[in-house]
Amino acid sequence: MLLQCLTSTFMIASNLYVASMTSPSDPEFYSMTEFMLAALAQLCMICHFGNRITETSSSYIRCLYECNWYSSSKRFKQCILIMMTRLQIPVEMTAGKFFPLNLPTIISVVKGSFSYSAMYKAVGQR
Q: In the chain, how many domains are there?
């Protein structure tokens, strides 16, 4: 996942740079834009489902509490308690344990891509 995020960042940045140097009337401009959007969609899908996993895991505590635990056996109550204690820390998909894969990550990747694209453009103009 880490490699996928880094690759997507550099693909988007390089396509932004090349697209900024290409005329919008050129057919190559649209193929680069399409490729960039495909890379962004791929990353968005990964981060969206990572975010859904985190949201779902945090809603399990409420579901466990709302089950009919008070009229159940002692063993069942202990299992519920263990699960609720374990779910205090939400489940997160991470990219190599460096950063979580969630919706703010998409924004960070897009910001980073624009920054790298601006850097490419500044270096290319020298």
A: 1
